[in-house]
């Protein structure tokens, strides 16, 4: 079974003396639960793993009961330490207060219970931790699978990765594309929106959120103003509502909106978003094209390739903690801008049919980035770029 590189980091942290709650965040179906399941047999300490997935949201007492069970097991085992793993914890109302109460009790009474918490809603988890558990946790973010991982695990070609994206659970279905598309739409998209957003967050216009997601996938890799978006949506709404819904979709690892780079934080936030999916499967599963048709359509394929580079950058932006933007001024445009500290990198994606772009030269003259890169035709081959961790560019 394929093991993601994150497992080594989690194992090291659990083997250290008890200090922090370990929080594993990430979208659905990226292998968070699988990774912890792989980890447990390699640990020498006794452990228990529980999931809140089927527990009533109002049953916060369940958390306290699970914790007490861990204490009893620690005592019965006569071990010096114990590991408690709780999956999908964000489903429980007021979970962060209960975790704080139980963690602090163990700290006061010198009970050596280490804790791993897993969840698929970054927004809800981070809100709970910053409000109640400041100073008591550290995070590991598991993003969507990269091309390098899909290559090593399933032997995929670059074309397969660009089109089918990075959901490992769907890999066995790509031979039957209609079945694959139904799996992505029903088991991943619908479940993520329903369980991670609509059930856990107040959304006054769920139909508007779903339509925004569909539109964002259709225009992944493209810039679209909120005014134009509203013009294509039948449900009434406003730019603020759309921006909030886009943030919810981003926090669940579905669809992000990149701000315009301007060297000025106020102007960045006031810009039209550039839509960017976190996984290309979200684009192609909702399209009527097939893999065979898409790959021979230069214009269509060029957009899918650019989107796949964007997925690579936006997933690593969270785990590697750099900012990701686009830049445009009049007819001049740069596809992606990476910023970490004082270091700025301009990155242009060029497919075979893409016209020459003077934007990179204008951007370099105006902002003096650390480096400018071309991915695709005439530059770094897309296949090679998607194997690189973008932090190495800095």
Please sum up the structure shown.
With 394 residues, the chain is α/β, with parallel strands linked by helices. It is built from 17 helices and eleven strands.
Q: Could you please describe the fold and organization of this structure?
A:
- There is one protein chain.
- This protein has 394 residues and is an alpha/beta fold.
- It folds into two domains: 6-141, Rossmann fold, CATH 3.40.50.300; 147-393, no CATH class.
- It is built from 17 helices and eleven strands.
- The protein has helices spanning 6-15, 32-39, 61-77, 95-108, 122-132, 147-154, 158-164, 177-198, 206-218, 226-232, 239-251, 265-269, 281-284, 291-295, 298-319, 359-367, 382-385, and strands spanning 21-25, 47-51, 82-87, 113-119, 137-141, 255-260, 274-277, 323-329, 332-340, 343-350, 371-376.
- Helix 1 (6-15) crosses helix 2 (32-39), helix 3 (61-77) packs parallel to helix 4 (95-108) and helix 4 (95-108) crosses helix 5 (122-132).
């Amino acid at each position: 079974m394929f093991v993601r590189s994150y497992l080594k980091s989690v194992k090291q942290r659990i083997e250290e003396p008890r200090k922090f709650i370990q929080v594993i965040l990430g979208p659905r179906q990226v292998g968070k639960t699988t990774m912890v399941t792989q980890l447990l047999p390699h640990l020498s300490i006794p452990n228990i793993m529980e999931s809140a997935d089927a527990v009533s949201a109002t049953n916060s007492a369940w958390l306290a009961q699970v914790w007490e069970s861990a204490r009893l097991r620690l005592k019965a085992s006569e071990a010096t330490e114990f590991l408690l793993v709780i999956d999908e914890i964000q489903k429980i109302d007021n979970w962060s207060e209960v975790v704080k109460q139980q963690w602090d009790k163990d700290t006061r009474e010198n009970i050596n219970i280490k804790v791993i918490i897993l969840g698929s809603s970054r927004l809800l988890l981070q809100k709970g931790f910053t409000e109640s558990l400041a100073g008591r946790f550290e995070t590991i973010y598991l993003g969507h699978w990269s091309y390098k991982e899909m290559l090593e695990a399933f032997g995929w070609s670059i074309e397969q990765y660009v089109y089918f994206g990075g959901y490992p659970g769907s890999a066995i279905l790509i031979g039957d594309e209609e079945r694959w598309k139904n799996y992505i739409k029903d088991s991943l998209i619908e479940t993520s929106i329903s369980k991670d957003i609509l059930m856990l967050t107040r959304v006054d216009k769920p139909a508007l959120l779903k339509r925004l997601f569909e539109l964002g996938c259709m225009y992944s890799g493209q810039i679209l103003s909120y005014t134009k978006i509203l013009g294509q949506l039948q449900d009434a709404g406003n730019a603020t509502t759309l921006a909030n819904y886009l943030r919810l979709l981003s926090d669940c690892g579905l669809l992000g909106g990149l701000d315009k780079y301007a060297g000025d934080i106020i102007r960045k936030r006031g810009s039209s978003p550039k839509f960017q999916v976190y996984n290309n499967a979200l684009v192609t599963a909702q399209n009527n094209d097939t893999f065979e048709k898409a790959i021979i359509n230069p214009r269509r394929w060029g957009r899918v390739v650019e989107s796949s580079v964007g997925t690579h950058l936006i997933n690593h932006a969270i785990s590697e903690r750099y900012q990701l933007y686009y830049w445009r001024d009049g007819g001049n445009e740069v596809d992606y801008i990476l910023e970490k500290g004082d270091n700025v990198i301009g990155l242009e994606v060029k497919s075979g049919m893409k016209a020459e772009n003077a934007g990179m030269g204008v951007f370099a003259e105006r902002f003096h980035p650390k480096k400018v890169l071309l991915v695709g035709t005439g530059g770094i081959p897309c296949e090679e770029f998607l194997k690189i961790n973008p932090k190495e560019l800095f």
